[in-house]
């Protein structure tokens, strides 16, 4: 796939899209390069792959006017220069990744004021308009296909019409059930349509009229799952995404990273101090024996006026359990109080059964230690002092 790119161009993102043709694979690719103004410029290329042949069916420069919105049916819509394009990624995670990345490059285009009529930028795209690498017309048509507008702007009165109390209750039920489903499935393998069908099976009704609402809250839940959560002023709980996001780490004053996973690498060892707790997210994993070490590591960040990010894959089970253990010791919280504190800030946390049992044991250990210290203090107070007369 890289053979079709110029040597100076770089792929920033590549996600697979749904295709209406058999044996045809489509990819939305964000490509960047340093332009004539010595600033980074971006574009979207639509790659078509048929029988191992790669061609380009879409070339879309990222201008300041690019607008990104959900289409209400598991995809998103891009509008630029009076043209509209519909993209449907093959999974929820792909949709979320593309959605975030497009917002990021659009923000950059606005920062550098890349306007449509600015002839000094994006001249490098002429290379990709070469006829020899253009896709078959039928595939080009698929990239440019239009459809009836089924979704509305987020500020449309159609979307935010007055809701009856019954409607509000039902939307709340949808939100709760959708979050439960998303916490149970592999988001790399399921589509937004699959999630909606699961909801329809649960409620036994057609939810077509709720497509936009379901898409909106799906992104809200994903955002919460992906955004690092401040638990204490110096302690953040997050996911693999947060651990790999250098800009966010620096913005949050992170100096220490506690990696509670076996499968995730330390992304920036030259920038941060790392502690690794290599465990899988299963009931048999032993986190209890690690919590004294993780407690000291987090407190080291606090003493040095830096922040610590505690993360695993999703910021739900392993890292959440470790943060709960820290709060129980540092703030003398009960397990119930620690859970309440963290869930208020990151409601998606859900330690597995094994970790919950270990937290209960840890609560008992902390209580026993506290009782012992109290008895020791009382004993020292009651010991009579002796004086030696000369």
From TrEMBL:
GO terms for biological process: negative regulation of actin filament polymerization. It is found in: Cytoplasm, Cytoskeleton. Its main location: cytoplasm. It is an enzyme of class 3 (hydrolase). GO terms for molecular function: actin binding; protein serine/threonine phosphatase activity. Residues 227-368 form the Tyrosine-protein phosphatase domain. Belongs to the protein-tyrosine phosphatase family. The keyword ATP-binding does not apply. It catalyses: O-phospho-L-threonyl-[protein] + H2O = L-threonyl-[protein] + phosphate. Residues 168-223 form the DEK-C domain. Keywords: Cytoplasm, Cytoskeleton, Hydrolase, Protein phosphatase. One of its GO terms (cellular component) is cytoskeleton. It comes from Adineta steineri. Residues 289-346 form the Tyrosine specific protein phosphatases domain. It comes from the Eukaryota. This is protein-serine/threonine phosphatase.
